[in-house]
Task: inverse folding
């Protein structure tokens, strides 16, 4: 007996939306990871940490990186170790809390981030940003904000 795929009409809209998010996240992340690794020897997890650092005018406490990224705290620590060994970030003791460290990009880290950001944007353009208009992007941003605000599953 021949097997066929379910169509969108046969799947509840909530299930279709969920699996669409999973599919998009997986496919786009893999695409960006391949491009960044090939062009800059920079896995997407490293780029994510660099993105948060580049977005902040001040050094970022390591604990904030753990809370901001999609990585666990131990993954963030390993990524920061790797970035530091490549001379892309520095760790400094926190002036506010002697128990913590703050992380910042080095000039080399800023340079590599700018190059990698251009790679990421050009990689995503034909399969994401060029396909969506401003209204689509704003809708996705709104969905993401709602989901992230309620990530622990608490009904408000």
Result:
């Amino acid at each position: 007996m021949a097997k066929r795929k379910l169509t969108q009409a046969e799947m509840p809209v909530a299930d279709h939306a969920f699996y669409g998010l999973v599919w998009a996240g997986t496919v786009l992340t893999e695409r960006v990871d391949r491009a960044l690794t090939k062009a800059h020897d920079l896995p997407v997890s490293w780029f994510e940490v660099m993105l948060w650092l580049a977005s902040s005018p001040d050094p970022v406490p390591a604990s904030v990186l753990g809370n901001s990224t999609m990585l666990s705290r131990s993954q963030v620590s390993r990524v920061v170790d790797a970035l530091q060994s490549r001379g892309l970030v520095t760790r400094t003791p926190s002036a506010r809390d002697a128990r913590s460290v703050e992380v910042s990009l080095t000039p080399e880290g800023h340079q590599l981030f700018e190059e990698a950001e251009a790679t990421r944007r050009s990689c995503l353009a034909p399969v994401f940003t060029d396909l969506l208009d401003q209204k689509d992007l704003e809708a996705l941003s709104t969905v993401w904000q709602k989901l992230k605000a309620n990530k622990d599953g608490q009904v408000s």
